[in-house]
Each structure stands twice: as structure tokens, then as C-alpha cells.
Amino acid sequence: MADVAFEIEGATLDDLFATGARALAELAADPATLGGAVERTVTLEAPDVELLFYDWLAELVFLADRDRAVYPAADVTVTAGPPAHLRARVHGGLVDRARTALRADPKAVTMHRFRVDALSGGGWRAEVVIDV
Amino acid sequence: MELRRLADCVWEIPPTAKPGMRVPARLYASETLLGGMEHGVFDQVTNVACLPGIVRAALCMPDGHWGYGFPIGGVAAFRADTGIISPGGIGFDINCGMRLLTTTLREEDVRPHLVALVDALFDAVPAGVGAQGFVPLTEDAFREVLREGAAWCVHRGWGWREDLEHIESGGRLPWADPEAVSAKAVSRGLHQLGTLGSGNHYLEVQVVRRVDDPDAAAALGITGPGQVVVMLHCGSRGFGHQVGTDYLRLFLAAMPRYGITVRDRELACAPFRSPEGQAYFGAMAAAANMAFANRQVITHRVREVMSRLFGRDARDLGLAVVYDVCHNTAKLEHHRVDGELLELVVHRKGATRAFGPGEPDVPEAWRRLGQPVIIGGSMETGSALLLGTETAMRETFGSTAHGAGRTMSRHEAKRRIHGGELIRGMAARGIVVRAASRSGVAEEAGFAYKDLDAVVDVLRRVDISRPVAAVRPIGNVKG
Question: CA B60 to CA A83: how far, in whole Å?
Fold first, then answer.
């Protein structure tokens, strides 16, 4: 029984990863209601694109919880490798408990049904279940 | 999948049901509860039965539902010498657990002050996303918490010495290894001590609605119907989730080195005696200690609030800890299997330890009774207090259920009701709710859970727990 699942597609890996950040942020709160702006730089390496995508979402869950913030936007550059690499600048806002419309609390990215696939016609698709 | 009835409310899937099963899978449920379990439960419990070193059977309690890797309500024991340890068999929220406090108050004493009480608890115990605790900690101090657990709080005046005697394992797993915890996990948990969290975590003011065993109830401080008690349900917060995430990734990389394959990556594991397995066991214990400390700090805040509101000392209000149980842990225990006493790594994921009378690990005060078991139901319907039994020691590695168990996803619950509507409906029935997130309330509607009495009835019929009392909520604080 999935707590919160999402399926996303991207024309490119960069697009898929940026869309993943957006989907995760939308789970947590209405981005329009966030407080003060925050930015972070993320660099990651993983054996393949699928594990890199897991690490990327896990990093965003970590940053959000540590910073008490939500990061809906990301400029991402991914190289497929192997090993796969990511460099990103993420943009978001602090949770303002008086103003922010909170939704769920993403606590961890699960490996339950987790997958990233290259589509035959081009582009990428990912399926993710988040523990909330 | 072939399912045969072994006894009343005990069902078994034989090892022939799936290639790779080393032992049978065994489910404890009435026909009704079994019929309500999703297909995923049967798939997951048989996947667990394939893991190296598992003994007797992969078990699922009557509150079982579809989880990640292991089912929620899952119990599995692995030989310490040849078996594995798996973060997926414990859950991301390490040592999520329940704590029950008594009071000398009756419902009629509290009713006139109920709204003020729930408001004050909501203010004193930070809940929901972005909440931070009132305990300012340095990284060094946080690592002390990871080593010392609830005792760290009591030594600072946030609790009573006797509280420690009424917590599973005395509120401290001594093999905790803060050095096995990542800097990320520490930075995530640093501000979270004393916070309730979100999801299904709650702090409830409750009233005893039924006493099943008057003698045991009296011994535990439950005086009878109408008595007000306080229950909390929370765990190791983002800290525990980070420990789980870190080791899930580490074990995925380590498994090929040990020649281990699993049917589901959420079952990623390592040999218990391997460096990776031991590191996780130490990190998991550190997270468990953080959770014990978290529930201890919240207990202190509850005592402060109620003492202030009722103008009486917390001791005079009888705010004593009945017990504090873990329901997401792995522990090294000795159990007899096929006549042989084995050292086992017992995983309980959404399952509660339920040691029987006379067991040395049960605090002396309750040893003749058996270990108290606290089972949390939905925020609308209430919870239950039970005791562990000798049958549980023989059949389920001293384990029982942990809650009512979900019957539908959080998403489906929110689709069916709006949080505001649920809060108004509960208010009309005399239950005051304060929540950080209204949509979070909708996720926890009573209809999203199984009937707790049906779960408790199965536990009684199979004799893995003995009902003592049932409680209903009148005030609820949640994230």
C-alpha cells in the first residue's frame, strides 16, 4: 500500500531529475506559500542513473528536513556514465509555519517499485514511492 | 497462493509456494481480517521467508498490511551466526513506539478544561513539518543522547528516575554506536528532540472505556472506566529515516560481495556478523535511543502542561509511565526453536515485543504480569493495553501486533473526507483535535483503519497477548 507514489516523465535526464524535485516539493507543500528563499548546490555520483535518481531524491528529502525548507526548482546537469554524475543548484523557500500550506511530510525515498526507464521513443520515465 | 489453516486464526503458506522460501510464512488473523489483507502482504511475507538465516517462519500479525519490503506487522528472526540484518525489516522510523501515562484525573475533571489542555499540549509539543524541539543541542550533546537514550533526559531533570524502569530495555539500547551514524543523520536530527512528527504520530488524551482484566489493570495503575490517561506515538523522526536511508544504500552495494540476492530491493540486507551488519545494528540502536529520548522529552512537556493547567504537581496528578514499547526494531534475543536455544536477530516492523511473565527482560515491577503491550488504534476509535504471554514466547518470538493497521492508502482516505469535516465531526462526538496539517488529519480517519477490537480479539484467541484495558480518545494533537 503506497503512502505517496508518483510517476513522472522527462524529455531528457536533466528534465526528469528537475521534474522529480518539483514532484517531491509539491507533495510537501504549496510552493507559492513558502517563506524566505534558500539555495543549495548538490553534487552526486552513483553506479547508474537509477541509483543516482534515488540518491538525488534522498538528498532533497534530507536537505528539506535539515533546513526546514522545500526545494521545488532545480537546475540539473546529469551525465549517464557509468558512473552517473549529477551537479545541481536547487532553489526553494523556508517553511513558514504561519503561512506555508503544508501537505505531506516526505521522510524517505523507498526502493518499493522504484524504477527509472529509458522510453523507446526517447525520454525517461520514473516511478517513486515516498514514505510520508 | 496456497494458504492452509493451522489453528483458529493461524494460517500458513508452505515453503513450496514460492521458489527460494526457506521457511513457511505464517499469518495470525481471523477470516475477516485475512480477507481484508492486500495481495502485497502475502507476497511480502513470503519474500521475507526467502532471506538467509531465517528460522521457524516469517510471521505477520493481525494488523498486517502492505509495507516496503517487509509487511507492516511483520516479525522475522534470523540466526545471529549465519543470518542477516535488514533495515527493511525494521522500518525507516526506527523505534517508532508507544508510551502510556496514567493520571488520577477522571473524565469529568478534564472535560471543562479539554480545549485549553489540547491547545496547551499542541503549543508545548511541536508537531508537523518544519517543527523544531525546545531542547538546544550541540552535535556532541546529540551524540550523548544517541548513547544514553531516555536516561540522558532524566539526568537533566526531564523525567523521573522510575520512568526508566517502565520503558522497554530501560530506555537505552547499550550497543548504540554514534560513530556508525552519518553526519547527515546527525544534522537532520539535531533540532528534532521533543517533536512529535507527522503522519500517524499523535499525542492523545484518552479515557479508559473498558477494563478486561481488573487485577492486571490495577497493578498497572489503571483504576477503571472514566480514568484519564495520556498516550503518545512517535519515533526517531528524520534522524531515524536518514539512518535507514543511508544503510539501505550501503546494503544494496554490499549484497553482491556477500552473494546475497533479494526479491525486493527494500529487503536489502547484510550478514549480521559482517562489518556492514554490525555498523547498522549500532546505528539502529543509536536511532532507537534518540526515539526513547524523544518520548521522554515529550512526557516531560505533558507533565509541565498538565501540572500548570490543573494547578497540581505532576506526581500528585499521577502522571506515571505505565510502559513504553518499541514497534520498529531489531534485537538480539534468545529463543528456543525446534528444541534448540538460538541467538536470534528478531526483526519487528510494526510489531511489538510481548514477552511473557517471568522473563528477565520485563521490568521487575511488571515481571509477574508479563510485558505491557500498547496498541494504538485510529485517532477516532481508541487504543488498547495488553500483556505479553508465554504462548507469544513459544510461537512468535515474544511478539504481537502494534496497531489497528491501515485498510486504505493515505491518499484514498483524503479522497473520501476533508480534514476540516473530520475535525468537526470528531468535535461533535466530544474529541478535540489540534493538528499542524488538516490533510494529515484526513489521512488518519477511523475508516482508514481496521477495527482495533477485531485485532485485539485475534491476539486473545491465539493467546499471544492478553487484553487488560481499552481506551478512547477525547483530545488529540497531531502533526
Answer: 39
Report the C-alpha gap between B396 and B98 in whole angstroms: 20
Running DSSP on this structure, what letter comes out for residue B71? P
- CB contact, 8 Å: B419 with chain A? no
Q: Give A29's contacts in chain B (Cβ within 8 Å).
A: 129
Are the beta carbons of A105 and B132 separated by less than 8 Å? Answer: no
CB contact at 8 A, A78 and A13 = yes
H-helix or E-strand spanning residue A22: helix A13-28
Read off the pLDDT of each residue in B206-226 and give the average, rounded to a whole number: 97
Q: At B3, which amino acid appears? A: L
In terms of pTM, does the model score above 0.80?
A: yes
pLDDT tens digits along B129-159: 777 777 779 999 999 999 999 999 999 999 9
Q: Do A105 and B128 touch (CB under 8 A)?
A: yes
**Residue B398 CB: number of other CB atoms within 10 A?**
30
User: pLDDT digits over B252-282, tens only?
Assistant: 999 999 999 999 999 999 999 999 999 999 9
Signed CA dihedral, A117, A120, A123, A125: sign only: negative
| Letter string b/e over residues B43-63, b meaning 16 or more CB atoms within 10 A of that residue's CB | bbbbbbbbbbbbbbbbbbbbb
Residue B335: Cβ within 10 Å count: 18
Given a contact cutoff of 8 angstroms between Cβ atoms, the answer to whether B75 and B59 are in contact is: yes
* CA–CA separation, B440 and A60 (whole Å): 21
Q: How distant is the Cα of A94 from the closest Cα of chain B, in angstroms?
A: 9
Residue B271 and residue B332: Cα distance in Å, rounded?
Answer: 14
Is the Cα torsion angle A31, A69, A104, B302 positive or negative in sign? negative
How far the first Cα of chain A sits from its last, in Å, is: 12
Indicate if the pLDDT at residue B404 is higher than 90. Answer: no
